[in-house]
Automatic annotation (TrEMBL):
Class in the EC hierarchy, top level: lyase
MF (Gene Ontology): deoxyribose-phosphate aldolase activity
Pfam family, any one: DeoC
Classification via SUPFAM superfamilies: Aldolase (SSF51569)
EC numbers: 4.1.2.4
Pathway in which the depicted protein is active: Carbohydrate degradation; 2-deoxy-D-ribose 1-phosphate degradation; D-glyceraldehyde 3-phosphate and acetaldehyde from 2-deoxy-alpha-D-ribose 1-phosphate: step 2/2
UniProt keyword annotation of Lyase present: yes
Keywords in alphabetical order: Lyase, Schiff base
Gene Ontology CC, one term: cytoplasm
Reactions it catalyzes: 2-deoxy-D-ribose 5-phosphate = D-glyceraldehyde 3-phosphate + acetaldehyde
UniProt key word Lipoprotein: no
The protein's name: Deoxyribose-phosphate aldolase
Organism for this UniProt entry: Longispora fulva
GO biological process, one term: carbohydrate catabolic process
Length: 310
């Protein structure tokens, strides 16, 4: 394993990645479906809602993003429910590199992390020097987390060393910022490929592995996330290094978020039930979490104008 991490060849990577156990697709999907049926009682539900809220990377990644929208998003991340002083802040705000400076000014001193997508997000179709400049610019502007995309074309063509080297180069360009590596699982075609891409990203230095950009369907799914949780669990067993997981795209309700938390607990273990090790990439999930918290506190649902529309 040590030799593989330090100086692999493409043949070595191919042999290792294709030597990973094959994924039983039926078994994986059945396990995910079974975990999705677990019920949670009121006290545990309150804890789970707050935990999920603290794990949200509140995200805006649209061509029409404006400084005003980003400032409003930062305010919401810091105080999701201004009427409730006990409501926790979100884990991070995630924006395009051009909006990092705006977000940094708003978030400084708050404890909310600032993430930026980079490396020609969402396609990843740019030369490496452009990807590295993109990353360095975001970090220089104040991002302490970088969400990069892998070159899916290179991965699917079997050029694993290309993907490995790019991740390593971006990790170096990040400096002290944490690196989340987006696999774009909806384009990887098979569960076996998702397992291989997860291991490849971890071996190349990812701090987190992330399902999706949110721009491709399907985005995050429970079976895919379960598979990635197995990968980080097995990677820690093999190397002693702990890696985080971030499902992103399509997780919109508190009920869905709780299914993911149950899966984290059952598959990776309670060590991962922490915003440092598990995140939700979401733009609409937060409002539903707030609505459910309000229901638990007051006994009734809030009106449609209770929360901002992001």
């Amino acid at each position: 394993m040590t030799a593989l991490l330090t100086s692999p060849s493409n043949a070595t990577l191919r042999a290792f990645l294709h030597g990973l156990p094959g994924v039983d697709a039926v078994g994986l999907e059945q396990r995910a479906a079974g975990l999705g049926t677990r019920s949670i009682k009121t006290t545990a539900k309150a804890y789970a809602l707050d935990l999920a809220l603290r794990m949200v990377d509140l995200t805006t990644l649209e061509g029409a993003d404006t400084p005003g929208k980003v400032r409003a998003l930062c305010a919401k991340a810091m105080r999701p429910d201004p009427s409730d002083p006990d409501c926790p802040s979100t884990a991070a705000v995630c924006v395009y590199p051009s909006m990092v400076a705006v977000a940094h000014e708003e978030l400084k001193g708050s404890g909310v992390h600032l993430a930026s997508v980079a490396t020609a997000f969402p396609s990843g179709q740019a030369p490496l020097n452009v990807k590295l400049d993109d990353t360095r610019a975001a970090v220089a502007a104040g991002a302490d987390e970088i969400d990069m995309v892998i070159s899916r074309g290179a991965f699917l063509a079997g050029d694993y060393l290309h993907v490995y080297d790019e991740i390593m180069a971006v990790r170096e360009a990040c400096g002290d910022a944490h690196l989340k590596v987006i696999l774009e699982t909806g384009e990887l075609a098979t569960y076996d490929n998702i397992r291989r891409a997860s291991w490849l990203a971890m071996m190349a230095g990812a701090h987190f592995i992330k399902t999706s950009t949110g721009k491709v369907s399907p985005a995050a799914t429970l079976p895919t996330t379960l598979l990635m949780l197995e990968a980080v669990r097995d990677y820690r067993d093999a190397t002693g290094t702990k890696i985080g997981v971030k499902p992103a795209g399509g997780i919109r309700t508190s009920k869905d978020a709780i299914k993911y938390l149950v899966t984290v607990n059952e598959i990776a273990g309670p060590d991962w039930l922490d915003p440092d090790w598990f995140r939700f990439g979401a733009s609409t999930l937060l409002n539903d979490l707030l609505m459910q918290r309000h229901k638990l506190r007051t006994g009734h649902y809030s009106g449609p104008d209770y929360m901002t529309v992001d």
